[in-house]
Amino acid sequence: MAAALPLAALVAYYHDVAVQLGVRWWNDPNYSHGFFVPMFSLYFLWERRRDIAEVPVRWSALGVPVMLAAAGLRMFGHLIFSPYIAGMSLVVMLAGAVIFCFGLRLTRQLWLPIAFLVLMLPLPTPAYEAVALPLQRFAAIFATRVLHTVGIPVLREGNVIHFAGKSLEVAQACSGMRLLIGFVAMGIAVAHLSKRPIWHKSLLVASTFPIAIVANAVRVAGTGILYNTMGEAAAEGFFHAFSGWLLFVIALGLLALESFALSFLFAPRNTDKRQ
Predict the structure, then answer these.
(1) Residue 74 Rama label (left phi>0; alpha psi -120 to 50; beta)
(2) Per-residue confidence of the chain (275 residues) as pLDDT tens digits?
(3) Which among 137, 100, 112, 126 has a CA at the least distance from the CA of 48?
(4) Residue 220 near residue 142, CB atoms below 8 Å
């Protein structure tokens, strides 16, 4: 009952923010993974249910300033029309409500499920473009070199790859941000569930970035090969949609293979010898 009132206030105050997030996840393929992030957070809670049950519940007044800060952040995000700040205030408010209702000791057990929710928030446009533009350029350069390697003469001009009599633009939608954002979120979940040492988990999460970036560049190169040999319809039709899902699965396979290799190479050895 102690949590009912703060929870009701939280739902009422952030109803519009939650609706805006849902609409963004539905309409923007870059953030469609947002639907799954809260599910993973709930799974993390369920996974820790025994540890959580052993922690005594004691409310803490320290949650009040955290909730007040979140409310101020919500108002600021509304004033400057920033969905990211408004969404971030939701995560902060949730943390404050947990501290207030259940205390700091239990909050320490819940920090990952709460912090993981940050991955469901759409990035601010300046931050998105600051990452997407270099990724576009890398994908164009990588694809050009692959095309040269397989014997297809092309000329790159910025993010545009020129073939004989036609051109292919590596647009922002092909930057790989969609794959990168979703794959990093998945990588964090996989690393947490791997039950490995912290350095092992950190390495898995760090490797999601190069895996996703190279996987997208390979996809752009494949699109270029199809574009040259079979035409625009083949490059932008079924292959364009299917290749994204295929490479995501392949990237997950590489991450799983990396986890297995680390476990095999650095597994603790039993040095006890039987006499």
Answers:
(1) alpha
(2) 555 666 676 777 788 888 889 999 998 888 888 898 999 899 888 888 888 888 888 888 888 899 999 999 998 988 888 889 999 999 999 999 889 888 888 888 888 889 999 989 988 888 888 888 888 889 889 989 998 888 888 888 888 888 877 788 777 767 778 888 888 888 888 888 777 778 888 888 899 899 988 888 888 888 888 777 776 665 666 666 667 777 788 888 888 888 888 777 776 555 444 44
(3) 112
(4) yes
Which residue type, as a one-letter code, is found at position 8? A
